[in-house]
Amino acid sequence: MNPSSMSRSWWTSANGHADFPLHNLPLGIFTQVDGEPPRPGVALGDSILDLRALDGTGLLSGAAQQAVHACADGTLNGLFALGSGPRRALRERLLALLTEHAPEQAQVAPCLLDRHACSLHLPARVGDYTDFYVGIEHARNVGRLFRPDNPLLPNYKYVPIGYHGRASTVRPSGHPVLRPWGQTLPAGASEPRLGPSARLDFELELGIWLGPGNALGEVVPIGEAAEQVAGFCLLNDWSARDLQAWEYQPLGPFLSKSFITTVSPWVVTPEALMPYRCAQAPRPEGDPAPLPYLLDPEDQARGALDIQLEVLLLTPALREAGMPAERIALSNTQAMYWTVAQLVAHHSVNGCQLQAGDLFGSGTLSGALPGQHGSLLEITEGGKQPLRLSNGETRCFLEDGDEVILRARCHREGLGGLGFGECRGRVLPARG
Ligand code: MN
Questions:
Q1: Which of 251, 289, 329, 429 is the most buried (most CB within 10 A)?
Q2: Using an 8 Å Cβ cutoff, are 253 and 247 in contact?
């Protein structure tokens, strides 16, 4: 859709909605009643458009109908596997049906359900989950804690650094976060101990849903990488820093990250984000150019994203006092040193098979300045400078009952905005 023609909907709660105006139309999987089979829907204002019910009205046909039928198993995997064609066709049809003065209004209106009365599920079966490390300020901030003189390792500006995460523990927003147990080496101790993590942290990340995927042995050229991106979400890569510090050498994070990863449940499509794309920031003088398989002029010109990211913390004391969650970080996806297309091209350059429903995390997206840090590890400089909240509380790491809420918003003058909805999780005490 031409962004200058962003139109109003006859469904009035969509107009001016901070997250889900008409031009967003993110895809998700929901249930209205506990125990019923999950089904696909689209967020619109305060509502969910029930796509199965919409199909039942006879108003869908062709590729748009194929898109909905592909979700018959209660996941978006089938839709992701179809690539961009049916996804775009569905979007175009929904825009036509939902726009102000659409003649089909009376048939579509009964398919709109109260969003807050529905439960959202994981949108897809996660095949594989890969977490990258492309937030260069985060890499610098964390590196500085360990290597003050040389925070970035020599490979950083050549290789989009990543590791294989745990797909089985990805959960949708709202799922409780049980404080994990693990091995740690307490300060000054010579032997490790087993116990609950005392340095539980969050990581503010952009999530990327993959599809349709490539065959084993087939490389995705960077010029075709955009076709492999099915949508975007927010991702909290919960991290137990004390477990991580003890276990991470030489192979990287393991149990310090695999206990849970939370994603926002709505899949914001590449089409919805099109108006908020921007040029990848030029590399600073002296940085190497990306190797040719990672360099595409079109990707450099339009392949970055301008999404404002926010972290809020709701402590038990704030909650009991009826206070709102307090913002503790404000950042932007422009902190990514590599574009999403570069991540796809790099991941597949060895012939690795990507599949519909695979999930990428960007890595923590921090800015360079105080107030822009996407993890407590950075905010508190490794637990040395406590974070002070407005009610006088302090935090070095997360305490039981703390709730972390990630939000994302896009805005461009004259184009209106959109949001991702929330990615939320509350810390529960470790098992006794
Ligand atoms: Mn991470």
A1: 329
A2: yes
